[in-house]
Amino acid sequence: MPRTKIAGIGFYVPEQVVTNHDLMRHMETTDEWIQERSGIVERRYAKRHEETTSSLGAKAARIAIERAGITPADVDFIIFATLSPDYFFPGCGVLLQRELGITHTEIGALDIRNQCSGFVYGLTVADQFVRSGMYKNILLVGAEVHSMGLDYSTRGRNVTVLFGDGAGAVILQPTDDANQGILTSKLHSDGTHAEQLALINPGAHSGYHDHNTDFGYDESLEFGGLFLTEKMVEDGMAFPVMDGQLVFKTAVTKFPEVIKEVLDDQGFTPADIDLFIPHQANLRISQFVQKKLGLPDEKVWNNIQRFGNTTAATIPIALCEAWEAGKVKKGDLICIAAFGSGFTWGASLIRW
Ligand code: COA
To answer: Would the CB of 287 count as within 6 Å of ligand 1?
Structure first.
């Protein structure tokens, strides 16, 4: 059975830089608070009405496709991971297909809704398809446009300051080289705290039926079901919610656990890792995990300082930056790991 290799990689971040000082004009926060708690100095925001999640994804995808030495028409499966899709439905996978000009239909498109662990989940799914021989050129994209859905008042400051926009993409292909490719992946989930890091509305949970029908309309409900009411927007119910301390505490436990799991699976120790790419949730979380693994600074790639948390896009963006900087060489052992909303988490080991 072949292994799955990363044959091409690319990333794209919007041009517009938004600093902590820019955010201070809209909410009560400080550059010191943001840097001290998260490490973030600035992030990128997409251009309104011009850039969308699928268009950022397409820019990253074109670079990955070119670097893999193929054309968009060669892609036989698309996996798109995002929590900030262009539309409620259809998903970004088909929009990306269209944007890339892939007009043939000998292709599938799958959307993944696993938030911060979306790329690791997507990579693991793609790995199974490639190893089974079902697909030969999978395009996996992680992309987010958070900036269009954040609360820029002081009410939303604990969440808003952390997030940025961006996209990363990889092309996954089979390889017969036993010393190359994805060696193992482990995925986990625990729905106990699903609402502690979430965007609850709009959603079917609020159970609205139009009052002109008798399908269960309840006058006492002020909620909007699959759409937002004005009141929900006023009350801040249209924005993400996060129990930051719970997320922090759980993340610093689960990251080391799942990394140990993939290392043990392959008979490695942390010392065997050449480069560790943690999901960029918070520099403090990444530093905690780095210390726990005993890795020196040169073996860890962090870019949250410049891009904030771009959720499903952080790992491919960081991996691509590291690769472009010459930090990823043939034969290197790369460890990627993510934790986020769900909670869902996972890790992969890749021999470059
Ligand atoms: N600027 C200034 N003050 C802020 C603020 C901001 N942007 N956001 C929150 N605060 C205030 C709070 O209102 C609170 O004030 P109070 O003490 O007067 O009530 C105080 O800072 C402490 O808030 P708290 O939420 O306890 O801070 P914290 O030390 O837990 O840090 C996070 C907050 C979000 C940085 C931190 O919890 C974290 O990073 N968690 C993980 C989040 C994460 O990774 N999310 C992505 C998912 S993968």
So the answer is: no
